[in-house]
Design goal:
It contains six helices and no strands. The chain starts with 25 loop residues before the first helix and ends in an 8-residue tail after the last helix.
Length: 190
């Protein structure tokens, strides 16, 4: 069982009421989701400024996924999906094109589903959930590449994307675990 997800005392609630939880007002939820999406977009923009020394298209650090994983940990699967979907749509409109939207949506949806299932199982650490998310994000993108372009293109870049999914997933997981540890659940409120 992972330490960062275990309540500190036996009387602590399993999931404290957060700003985006069931009891939050619609306005408060909208504000929190807006802040999280804005953070994810800023992280994505910063990521665009950092050159990745690989000649393989689609390789990115995934900094915006820190926010999605944070939302999954603190708010739950549905809010994390909303943040992921808004991040993918807005970043594609601002920084990319419709083809990239298709690749990002496929990767984001598969990544979210895998991370949500892994998180819910309570068997995986934050870093392991993130690694699963990184690898599944790249797998979802490769499936879309195979559909939109050709399977040969997807197969050609699959080994590099598998390795980068592991490495970046681990880095994003370490960063998210540190943020979760530094920001107690009750301080996650807006």
């Amino acid at each position: 069982m992972r330490d960062e997800r275990t309540p500190q005392t036996p009387l602590a609630p399993a999931q404290p009421p957060a700003a985006g939880g069931r009891n939050a007002s619609a306005g408060r939820r909208a504000a929190l989701y807006g802040v999280l999406v804005a953070l994810a977009l800023v992280a994505g923009y910063v990521e665009m400024l950092v050159p990745v020394p690989l000649a393989v298209p689609g390789v990115k650090l995934g900094l915006g996924n820190i926010v999605v994983l944070f939302a999954l940990a603190r708010l739950g699967a549905r809010p994390a999906f909303a943040v992921m979907a808004a991040k993918v749509l807005a970043s594609s409109i601002l920084f990319a094109n419709p083809q990239v939207l298709a690749f990002s949506a496929a990767g984001g949806a598969l990544s979210w589903a895998v991370m949500a299932l892994a998180w819910r199982s309570r068997f995986f650490s934050t870093v392991a959930v993130s690694v699963l998310g990184g690898v599944s994000h790249n797998a979802g993108q490769l499936l879309m590449v195979a559909i939109v372009l050709t399977p040969q293109v997807a197969l050609a870049v699959a080994p590099v994307l598998a390795v980068t999914g592991l490495v970046t997933g681990a880095a994003i997981g370490v960063a998210t675990a540190a943020i979760l540890a530094a920001l107690p659940p009750e301080e996650a409120h807006v």
